[in-house]
Specification:
Blueprint lengths: L1 H31 L4 E2 L14 H35 L15 H30 L5 E6 L6 E5 L14 E7 L4 E3 L6 E4 L5 E6 L7 E7 L3 E2 L14 E2 L5 E8 L2 E6 L5 E5 L4 H4 L12 E4 L3 E8 L4 E5 L4 E5 L5 E6 L5 E5 L12 E7 L1 H14 L17 H8 L1
Parallel strand pairs: 1-19, 11-15, 14-20
Antiparallel strand pairs: 2-8, 3-7, 4-5, 4-8, 6-7, 9-10, 11-12, 12-13, 15-18, 16-17, 19-20
Helix pairs in contact: 1-2, 2-3
The structure holds copper (II) ion.
Copper (II) ion binds next to loops.
Length: 403
């Protein structure tokens, strides 16, 4: 009987792992296929396809660890129940034993759950830290000079965040048409002076003049990683520091967004009427979308004016409380040009279900046009139309250009 249970348990875990595999593939397919909106599927029970590296990491954790565990535990407990019902029924076991303790069983039912919780804890802490720590990756671009194989970049991070391992560097060759070719450490390049003030990347051979060298450096490596460091591919990448900050303020019942780096223009996003957006998007669509540029890291700061609300986009793997009198921050970055939806996720009163979150990811030039339009609506001059601001690389440079 015991052997049968062990076999059933193992089969359940193997089944769960194999069932989990296709959803990784779906994530990848969804990333390639661009749709115009990402809304919940009617009667769907799965997670939204991952649109950010954090969401990818969450999905691996869910598919490869949580789902097999919950199926395994459910099957095991059900098996025990069935076994007890049959083997120890009044008919099969008319004279029950009268003992009340069994040390071995008690040690096992304490130790095994502790072990299970530890297995869950390790990837959980990893996830919590990537969600909480603002990415600080730096991108350095170099035009290829004929014959040049050595490139250096400053290792000017905070001490605890300095580049000290080959894993903290990504080297890519980018062609004129935007095609990106990731170079392999050890094969295509080597790294010297790790942990020093200036790090040197030594290419095995010089790039053709048609390609630029792009070095991304930093410790904020996020994305699907091998499960427990053992199984599966490493699709993580170094995430650059944010180029944009958005402040989201929850109120009863809607969201107010402001863009502090662009003159702090702000707008309200209330629930859009069903007649305007149709039944499928009702309670997802808002009267105004948050607009962000594709492929860039966005810092989101949340607060509230009355009670606690919670800002979320499930496809991004982002959920963060908006608390009166406090600022919370998190981040996201997505390559998908799409519209994403979320809803207030902290019960906040009678219209809690009527404060949707809608976010539109657009190419950089569309984003700039939108910013200029919003500034105009708020009585400000455009900033991107032909000004030095267009050339600014960071939030600070933009801030400086605005003053
Ligand atoms: Cu709310």
């Amino acid at each position: 009987m015991t052997r049968l249970l062990v076999a059933a348990f193992t089969a359940a875990i193997l089944f769960a792992i194999s069932a989990a595999e296709p959803s990784f593939a779906q994530d990848a397919a969804a990333a390639v296929q661009e749709t115009t909106v990402d809304r919940p599927d009617p009667k769907g029970i799965g997670l939204r396809p991952a649109a950010t590296p954090v969401a990818e990491e969450i999905h691996v954790f869910y598919d490869a660890i949580l789902v097999p565990m919950k199926i395994g535990i459910s099957v095991f407990v059900l098996g025990l129940l069935v076994w007890v019902c049959i083997r120890y029924s009044k008919r099969a076991n008319p004279n029950p034993k009268k003992f009340s303790h069994n040390t071995l069983v008690e040690v096992l039912w304490t130790a095994i759950p502790v072990f299970i919780l530890l297995i869950i804890a390790v990837p959980s802490f990893e996830l919590l830290s990537v969600e909480d720590i603002m990415p600080d990756g730096q991108v350095h671009e170099y035009d290829a000079t004929p014959g040049q194989t050595q490139y250096a970049f400053p290792n000017d991070f905070a001490k605890s965040r300095m580049v000290t391992k080959a894993r903290h560097i990504e080297v890519a060759a980018v062609a004129d048409n935007g095609d990106r070719r990731l170079l392999q450490f050890d094969e295509d390049y080597d790294v010297a002076n790790l942990g020093d003030e200036t790090v040197v990347v030594q290419l095995a051979e010089a790039l053709p003049a048609s390609e630029r060298l792009v070095i991304t450096a930093g410790r904020s490596r996020v994305g699907a990683k091998p499960v427990l460091g053992l199984f599966g591919a490493d699709r993580s990448k170094i995430v650059p520091a944010p180029t944009l900050t958005i402040k989201a303020t929850g109120f009863q019942w809607g969201w107010r967004y402001s863009y502090p780096e662009f003159g702090d223009f702000e707008f309200d996003a209330l629930i859009a009427a069903e007649a305007d957006v149709g039944r499928e998007l009702y309670r997802l669509a808002a009267t105004n979308d948050i607009v962000v540029p594709e492929g860039e890291t966005v810092r989101i700061i949340t607060t509230a004016t009355d009670v606690i609300h919670s800002w979320t986009i499930p496809a991004f793997g982002v959920k963060i409380d908006a608390i009166p009198g406090r600022l919370n921050e998190t981040w996201f970055a997505t390559d998908q040009v799409n519209t994403f939806y979320g809803q207030c996720s902290e019960i906040c009163g009678k219209d809690h279900a009527f404060m949707p979150i809608s976010l539109r990811v657009v190419p950089r030039d569309e984003f700039e046009a939108w910013v200029d339009e919003q500034r105009e609506l708020n009585g400000m001059e455009p900033v991107f139309a032909g000004q030095e601001l267009a050339a600014a690389d960071s939030g600070e440079e933009r801030q400086a250009a605005l003053q």
